[in-house]
């Protein structure tokens, strides 16, 4: 990839690529690791899981006995676990060692799958290191629970439960983070992913991260992922995984047994009917999630791959405009603007760093259910 920068005279200048680390460095990948940890939005999390909107780094250089040190471990806002191996391929040309290390890390975690405390204890131990490299990171002196609670105050318990479940079942996303995705690496990723069978397999991706020098000491970062068509792999891994294959019948079954009052149930049904009418008129569709609790998530034709809200079978409502941010920027901005008119949403922003990304109990959201329908119709059902 070639990067050009526009100058004051409206002409464009080609930018030079800057190599991460130096060959003589004892730890040349450190700069790349910290770039990802300090700028987690570099990881295009929505390309890997349809329910995900945010990557949260948990720790770096976790020591796995007999299996080496895991470069980066992180999660997303639904509790998926990500293992990232960083390598500067222009320095370390041994691609076999890169592939082998990821497999080794999975083996190290898998061997401890029946000991849940291994993961939070390892994270706490690593993040308490007094070295500047750890103390300068966002997770310094924090354990798993504290990190998740700080990032997701409304739903940290659910996310922690999902992390625990994924750890015990050995479900991970594997990422190579490199300065250059080679032909050999592409072939390795393709070979691994074609064997995904829904049992113990885990999807593998590569993310190429390049740095370029700019004017006045400015730097530019470019990224691309492999496989290029990540949607196909994402759908395959979700369909064949150990997650739940929910549908409308499952949603109805769970909703009928939920412990809501008769009034709350009736109001939820009314909202559901209006939502279904919106999707029918829009010629969109519903997906029902892959979690233990089925969720009706509307996919409008204006944003056919993402759902900004989810109506769960237990009556909870999930609002997550962040899911639109990457692929549907204009819709994301407009929907967030409209939702901010709702008093409840407006009052929550001080807690959530400006993100509309949280669960709401029926006792709260049913009071503004008609506003939600009107906003969805105005912004998404075009």
Summarize this, please?
It is built from 14 helices and 14 strands. With 382 residues, it is α+β, with helices and mostly antiparallel strands. The strands form three sheets. Strands 3, 4, 5, 6, 7, 8 and 9 form a seven-stranded mixed sheet that branches. A five-stranded antiparallel sheet has the order 10-11-12-13-14. A two-stranded antiparallel sheet has the order 1-2.
Structure in words:
- It is a single chain.
- This protein has 382 residues and is an alpha+beta fold.
- The chain folds into two domains: 4-240, no CATH class; 248-379, no CATH class.
- The protein has helices at 30-38, 95-110, 118-127, 132-135, 144-151, 156-169, 183-194, 230-240, 248-256, 262-282, 329-339, 343-348, 362-365, 369-379; strands at residues 4-6, 12-14, 17-18, 55-64, 68-76, 81-87, 173-178, 204-213, 219-226, 285-287, 295-299, 309-312, 317-320, 357-360.
- The strands form three sheets. Strands 3, 4, 5, 6, 7, 8 and 9 form a seven-stranded mixed β-sheet that branches.
- A hairpin with a 7-residue loop joins strand 10 (285-287) and strand 11 (295-299).
- The protein is globular.
Rg (C-alpha, Å): 22 Å
Strand content: 15-25%
Number of domains: 2
Which geometry do the CA atoms define? globular
- Count of DSSP-assigned helices: 14
Mean pLDDT: 86
Return the structural class: alpha+beta
Give the proportion of residues in helices. Answer: 25-40%
What is the N-to-C order of secondary-structure elements (H for helix, E for strand)?
Answer: EEEHEEEHHHHHEHEEHHHEEEEHHEHH
Beta strand count: 14
pLDDT below 50 for ≥5 consecutive residues: which ranges?
A: none
Report the span from N to C terminus.
Answer: 36 Å
Major sheet details = 7 strands, mixed
């Amino acid at each position: 990839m070639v990067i050009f920068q526009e100058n004051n005279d409206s002409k464009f200048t080609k930018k030079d690529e800057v190599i991460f680390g130096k060959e003589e460095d004892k730890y040349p990948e450190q700069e790349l690791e910290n770039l990802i940890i300090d700028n987690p939005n570099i990881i295009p999390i929505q390309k890997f899981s349809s329910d995900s909107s945010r990557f949260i780094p948990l720790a770096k250089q976790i020591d796995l006995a007999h299996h080496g040190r895991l470069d980066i471990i992180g999660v997303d806002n639904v509790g998926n676990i990500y293992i990232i191996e960083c390598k500067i391929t222009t320095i370390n040309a041994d691609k076999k060692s890169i592939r082998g290390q990821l497999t080794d890390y999975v083996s190290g975690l898998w061997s401890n799958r029946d000991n849940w405390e291994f993961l939070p204890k390892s994270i706490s131990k690593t993040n308490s290191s007094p070295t500047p490299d750890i103390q300068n990171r966002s997770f310094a002196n924090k354990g798993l629970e504290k990190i998740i609670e700080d990032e997701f105050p409304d739903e940290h318990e659910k996310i922690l439960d999902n992390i625990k479940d994924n750890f015990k079942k050995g479900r991970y996303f594997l990422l190579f983070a490199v300065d250059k995705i080679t032909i050999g690496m592409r072939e390795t990723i393709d070979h691994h992913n074609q064997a995904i069978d829904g049992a113990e397999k885990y999807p593998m991706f590569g993310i190429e991260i390049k740095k370029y020098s700019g004017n006045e000491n400015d730097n530019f970062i470019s990224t691309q992922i492999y496989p290029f068509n990540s949607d196909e792999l994402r759908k395959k891994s979700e369909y064949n995984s150990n997650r739940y294959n929910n549908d409308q019948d499952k949603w109805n079954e769970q909703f009928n047994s939920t412990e809501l009052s008769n009034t709350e149930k009736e109001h939820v049904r009314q909202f559901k009917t209006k939502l279904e009418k919106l999707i029918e008129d829009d010629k969109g569709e519903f997906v029902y999630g892959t979690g233990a609790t089925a969720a009706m998530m509307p996919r409008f034709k204006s944003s056919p791959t993402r759902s900004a809200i989810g109506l769960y079978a237990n009556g909870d409502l999930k609002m997550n405009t962040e899911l639109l941010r990457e692929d549907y920027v204009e819709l994301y901005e407009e929907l967030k603007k409209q939702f901010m008119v709702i008093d409840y949403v407006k009052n929550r922003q001080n807690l959530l760093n400006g993100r509309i990304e949280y669960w709401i109990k029926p006792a709260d959201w049913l009071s503004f259910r008609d506003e939600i329908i009107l906003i969805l119709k105005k912004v998404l059902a075009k």
